[in-house]
Amino acid sequence: MAPPRDPEAGTNGINGHTNEHTPLLGSTVRSDDNFVKRHAKEGWNATMSVLTSNYVNVLLVFVPIGIIAGMFEWAPITIFTLNFLAIVPLAALLSYATEEISLYVGQTLGGLLNATFGNAVELIVSIVALQKNEIRIVQASMLGSILSNILLVLGCCFLFGGIKYKEQTFNSTVASTMSSLMAVAAGSLIIPAALYNSFNNNIDPIKNPEQYASHNSSILLLSRGASIVLLILYILYLFFQLKTHTNLFADEQDEEEETETPTLSVWSAGLVLVIVTFMVAICAEYLVDSIDSIVATTNISKTFIGLILLPIVGNAAEHVTAVVVATKNKMDLAIGVAIGSSLQIAILVTPFLVILGWIMGREMSLFFQTFETTVFFVSVLITNYLIQDGKSNYLEGAMLLGTYIIIGLSFYVYPDNEQGKGPGIPIP
Q: Which ranges carry the Sodium/calcium exchanger membrane region domain (predicted)?
């Protein structure tokens, strides 16, 4: 016989939401507790909920160690490694807190929050690098984030999902809409690169510095105008997804909202966002500061660090989430995480950084080197071709992963001194 229910014990609120009486992790907040005791219990519950939200949180121990390493100027490789490891759990906590707030504010505002904080780590690292005028790191990080999502993450989703299921299906209309916008983003990079090569094909920047500077100014003007257009397109895409054509995205949204209830209060989740964002900014500062010394003492280029290493750290939580849902045969959600995140970087974060660089007096542009632009175009082309039929299997996943590995190797052997031209890059 079950014991009588304690009237003071926790109960579930409407739709399963917890109220002030709900026990979390074994600690019950009672109505007869005094103010200090009640809030202390609530704080403890929230803290434990945050710390146990993801297994990668064990790496949080590297956060204070990484900051100490930066403060006391340890060896650059040590500073980079410790802060590199510290950002992994911080990225996971940002993702967790954003999801918690999204459960309170509703679909439209939740979509905007996910767009803002889903790539917060890359954005923070890039803003720090932009402030230090490290244009190469910013551009490589943006391109690397896009490639890691559409090739590495999507490839893993297709591969591991395809191993468990012979063939998986997803909403081809949604995927085509996203991939079409990615093609527009690819065009926004190809046009500045083509214009730059047309301008400066036969110009020596050392012998003709004034003409070279004039052409660079034209590239910056084009980039800033194109960035405004891309930001408008992203706003229209949000309106398209969340307002006028919600029926196209219904299946994806239903899966995302499946019986989820918030664990944290909206204020607790907001506080976590603020604290974690601050910690990411500190770790990013030390991380970016150590890159020049690493480049000088190793064979690793700035481009490889920004294009391969930093995106893997910033997207670690999203990578795991996408693969897990793919193995559960929720391919619409996996596609939304992988391609949706790339889309945010391509037509939201990168244009925003161009505009921010304009405000800060930095020559951040949409002009990427010819090799980088070609890689981006080929990657988008391959991805669009593989998802257009709305079906996936493990072989298609292997193709995407193989492409990513080849690109990673190409950037490992491609030194930074081969990319020393363009806006934001000083004339040697």
A: 77-242, 271-407
